[in-house]
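Example: DUF3093 domain-containing protein.
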Amino acid sequence: MADYRERLSVPVLWWIIGAAAVATLYVITAVPAGIFTGIAVGGIAAALLITLFLRYGGAVVEVNAEKLRAGRASIEREYLGKVEALSGEAARNAFGRDCDPAAYLVLRSYLPGAVRVEITDPQDPAPYWLIATRNPEQLAAALTSNSVARS
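Written out as structure tokens, the predicted fold is:
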């Protein structure tokens, strides 16, 4: 049972723009080369775009009693330190000029907020995890409830 779960799916606007791009590619190919070629090129472009959007937007952030999972990585909750919810300019700076190159990042440019989680495991090279989210306050609350180290 998860205390918090969020899939970082791409926004609907991206799908609309992608569909418009595929339609445009179909037209600019079908007019000079024929409908069959246009369908083939448009179909390949659509398949690639769908695959890309589903993979990029398939990252999951999940918190349960034992661990935090963000993207492909997971860590036991006993190694989590201070948790900080970030939004607006603070989130943009955290992913930009204030970012430590050794930090583990789950960045999604279309998400407005983030949560910075300090890592206390001496074996872990990342000083903190920075996780993009739609709900920074809810994620931070899930990470601080019933955890060993509270912010």
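The first helix runs from residue 12 to 33.
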